[in-house]
Design a protein that fits this description.
Blueprint lengths: L7 H9 L7 H8 L15 H8 L3 H9 L6 H13 L6 H11 L2 E6 L4 H17 L3 E6 L2 H14 L4 E4 L7 H8 L4 E5 L9 E4 L2 H14 L5 E5 L5 H16 L9 E3 L4 H12 L7 E4 L2 H13 L9 E3 L16 E3 L2 H20 L8 E3 L3 E3 L10
Parallel strand pairs: 1-2, 1-3, 3-4, 4-5, 5-11, 6-7, 6-8, 8-9
Antiparallel strand pairs: 10-12
Length: 382
């Protein structure tokens, strides 16, 4: 590659025989000015110079250099071309200083009692936070007073951002409480994302509809449903998806076959007992999460009901419990670990943009679900 053409100021200096030839990056800096002006200051090329050359924002250049995935191939190629053209070299010492200044401390504030769900979030979140050299902290809270105390502990630890899993992801009060302290917030697994808060989620309605269609395709007509915690927005969307599937097949929904649960194993035991005590027993039970579905299996075993010969049981989420019970659960796979990774990546980007004096619009990431057909579902009994 040819060396950058010298400016008139640089040629004049050579004629006078004053300074020795400058480095290539310094000459490039001299050739870059604001709005076409010539900059004769001898200095290294900066990330801002690369951004001006490529016609993009500094944060985009930073993402390309750091190797993050949320940059389009065309944009990445454009930035890399400018890096080569300007012979930009990363200042390792400066990067280390900036890394300390922009290191992100992320908290996860939770009140979800499902240990399997939380462990999957943490697995993905810890992997991503390690990759991004950020720090991840976990705080549990109970009730409004507990939320305030947990927020105070996170603030005392110097947290920059907080990820909120259900049900806190839908609490405007909690979100506003954190934002009043200058904390970045992300809603994880909300079913009704807020326009001004970044989120990572799946389509709970479509997931429940897919499972209901699966059971109907197996010949089931008498299908019961165990609802989740009413404080979680996915609860209603999953129920609505079930109702839509039943209506689509012109099937009646018996009121006694709709039972309230709380997304816990214990609430699943109580709900399953109610269903089995009904005058007419359903041929299939669709529980709103795997913990309640696993509890339903336990109650069925205790009553000598063969699964799936006499009863099909399905869950939602595909947490670890789904493949550790017998028979293994047919369920909707929610990529919880991947959602944890995506949540950390998004919130770290927002935190770093803020620390560098920039702003970043809320991002909403919709992830795919899959129906996992295992041994707990089968053809409807004759």
């Amino acid at each position: 590659m040819k060396s950058p053409r010298k400016t008139k100021a640089a040629l004049g200096a050579d004629v006078l025989g004053a300074p020795p030839p400058r480095s290539r990056s310094a000459e490039s800096a001299a050739a870059i000015g604001t709005e076409g002006a010539v900059n004769t200051v001898s200095r290294p090329i900066t990330i801002h110079d690369v951004a001006r050359h490529a016609g993009v924002g500094s944060m985009t250049v930073s993402r390309v250099i750091r190797g993050t995935t949320n940059v389009s191939p065309a944009m990445r190629e454009k930035v890399e071309a400018s890096v080569r053209a300007l012979n930009y070299q990363v200042n390792v010492a400066a990067r280390a200083t900036r890394s300390r200044a922009t290191a992100a401390r992320v908290g996860i504030l939770y009140s979800n009692p499902s240990a399997s769900y939380l462990s999957e979030i943490m697995m993905g979140g810890l992997e991503e936070s390690s990759r991004l050299a950020s720090h991840l902290m976990l705080e549990r809270c109970e009730g409004l007073a507990g939320q305030r105390q947990a927020v105070e502990r996170l603030l005392a630890a110097g947290v920059d951002g907080v990820i909120l899993p259900p049900p806190l992801c839908d609490s405007r009060q909690t979100i506003d409480m954190l934002r009043a302290e200058g904390v970045t917030v992300l809603a994880l697994a909300t079913a009704r994302p807020m326009q001004d808060v970044s989120s990572v989620r799946i389509d709970d309605y479509e997931g429940a509809l897919a499972m209901t269609r699966h059971l109907i395709a197996l010949g089931h007509r008498d299908i019961a449903f165990i609802k989740g915690d009413p404080e979680h927005t996915p609860t209603e969307l999953r129920f609505e998806g079930f109702l839509a599937g039943m209506a689509e097949a012109d099937l009646a929904v018996r009121p006694e076959w709709i039972v309230q649960g709380l997304f816990t194993y214990r609430s699943g035991l109580v709900a399953a007992e109610k269903l089995f005590e009904a005058r007419v027993r359903p041929s299939a039970i669709f529980a709103s999460n795997d913990d309640m579905a696993a509890a339903t299996l336990a109650v069925a075993h205790g009553r000598q009901i063969a699964v799936p010969r006499d009863l099909s049981v399905c869950g939602f989420d595909d947490t670890a419990v789904a493949s550790t019970v017998w028979p293994e659960l047919t369920t909707i796979h929610q990529p919880i670990a991947d959602m944890g990774r995506a949540a950390v990546a998004l919130i770290v980007d927002e935190i770093r943009a803020r620390k560098l004096g920039g702003t970043q619009r809320p991002a909403h990431k919709l992830m795919s679900f899959t129906l996992v057909d295992r041994a707990s579902s089968g053809l409807a009994p004759p």
